[in-house]
């Protein structure tokens, strides 16, 4: 089973790297950029074929490693 | 106009951070993970409303900053 985990900063949380990208684009002459946001996407190949097992495992992986629940939110999607 | 840039490593290019995630998941007891891949997603708010302008600007942004053409590929999508 293939899993896709999208991890983004919570609204209102400062993303220094996104800000740095915005400044760098401006310094390269791209004056058209009004906002920059970043999302981390982690794709996982899971041995299990059971959807419920995959979902609970992924939730635990996110809570323990892939996302920082204090400043990040995550979204999980599964494909057979 | 909103733009979404997805940047991934080219096939065959080693992604040390993805490997580290894989090892960390295994050490946390998640033995079900067979592969890990990462994608960087950068969302941009552009002032322009002209699609062709946005596309050419985004291509230049990717070539100059957002992606390393030697080891990464990128995919651009636009929404009004």
Automatic annotation (TrEMBL), chains A, B:
Pathway, per record: Purine metabolism; IMP biosynthesis via de novo pathway; 5-amino-1-(5-phospho-D-ribosyl)imidazole from N(2)-formyl-N(1)-(5-phospho-D-ribosyl)glycinamide: step 1/2
Record flagged with keyword GTP-binding: no
Gene3D superfamilies, A to Z: Phosphoribosylformylglycinamidine synthase subunit PurS
Keywords for this protein: ATP-binding, Cytoplasm, Ligase, Nucleotide-binding, Purine biosynthesis
Uppermost EC category: ligase
Subcellular location: Cytoplasm
Family under the similarity heading: Belongs to the PurS family.
NCBIfam families, per the entry: phosphoribosylformylglycinamidine synthase subunit PurS (TIGR00302), PRK05974.1 (NF004630)
Assembly and binders: Part of the FGAM synthase complex composed of 1 PurL, 1 PurQ and 2 PurS subunits.
Name of this chain's protein: Phosphoribosylformylglycinamidine synthase subunit PurS
């Amino acid at each position: 089973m293939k899993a896709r985990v999208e991890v983004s900063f919570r609204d209102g949380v400062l993303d220094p790297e996104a800000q740095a990208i915005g400044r760098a684009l401006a310094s390269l002459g791209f004056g058209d950029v009004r906002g920059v946001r970043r999302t981390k996407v982690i794709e996982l190949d899971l041995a299990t074929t059971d959807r419920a097992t995959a979902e609970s495992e992924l939730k635990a992986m996110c809570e323990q490693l892939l996302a920082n629940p204090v400043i990040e939110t995550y979204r999980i999607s599964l494909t057979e």
